[in-house]
Amino acid sequence: MPSAAMASAQFQDPTQVRVPASQILVSDQMKMALIEEEGMHHTVYADPVGYLTVGVGHLVIPKDNLKVGDRISQGRMALLLEQDLRIAEDAVVQLVGDLPLYQHEFDALVDLVFNVGAGNLSPEESPKLNRAIEVGDYEAIAEELAYHNAAGQKLKGLEYRSDRREKIFMEASYDNPRSQSEVTRT
C-alpha cells in the first residue's frame, strides 16, 4: 500500500510547488486569457499575416475543410480549442523535458506555443530559450517569452501579449495589460 507521502508526491498542486510539466494541464485562468487574446470567431477569417483562422485562434488546416467566410458552431469552436490546447501542452512537455514548473509557468509556455507554434521554439529558432530551459534559469526563460513580430511585421497586439505572458510566467498575474478602451476596440 502506498504511503501518504508517496501519494501526495504524485499529486502535488502545481500552483504551490513546481512539478514536472507532464503532470500539468492548462488552467481555466489561462483558457480565459487565451480567449481574451484571440477572441472567439465563428467565421473563418484571415489573420493579420494572412493565416486562415477560426474559433479561438485555431489555424485552419486542410482536414478542417473550411474556407474564408465559413461558420462553425460553438461546440466545434470548443472542440478545436481543446484539441489545440492538448497539442500545445504536449509541445511544452517536449520543450521543457524534466524541468519542473509552477502552473502559471506552464500556462505561459502553453500560450507561447499556442501563439507562435512549436516549430518556432526549436533549438535552431530559439536557442536562448532552449539554453535557459536546459540550465533551469527561470528568469532567462521569462526574458525569452517575447515575440513581437509575425511574418516580418511588428504587431502591437503581440507586444501586449508578450508582456502579459511574461507577467503570467513571473508573477502568476493573468490580468490583461491593455486599457479597457483598447480591449473594446479590438
From TrEMBL:
GO terms for biological process: cell wall macromolecule catabolic process; defense response to bacterium; killing of cells of another organism; peptidoglycan catabolic process. GO terms for molecular function: lysozyme activity. Gene3D superfamilies: 1.10.530.40. The keyword Amino-acid biosynthesis does not apply. CDD domains: lyz_endolysin_autolysin. Its EC number is 3.2.1.17. It comes from the Bacteria. Keywords: Antimicrobial, Bacteriolytic enzyme, Glycosidase, Host cytoplasm, Hydrolase. It catalyses: Hydrolysis of (1->4)-beta-linkages between N-acetylmuramic acid and N-acetyl-D-glucosamine residues in a peptidoglycan and between N-acetyl-D-glucosamine residues in chitodextrins. It is an enzyme of class 3 (hydrolase). Belongs to the glycosyl hydrolase 24 family. PANTHER family: LYSOZYME RRRD-RELATED, PTHR38107. HAMAP family: ENDOLYSIN_T4 (MF_04110). This is Lysozyme. It comes from Qipengyuania oceanensis.
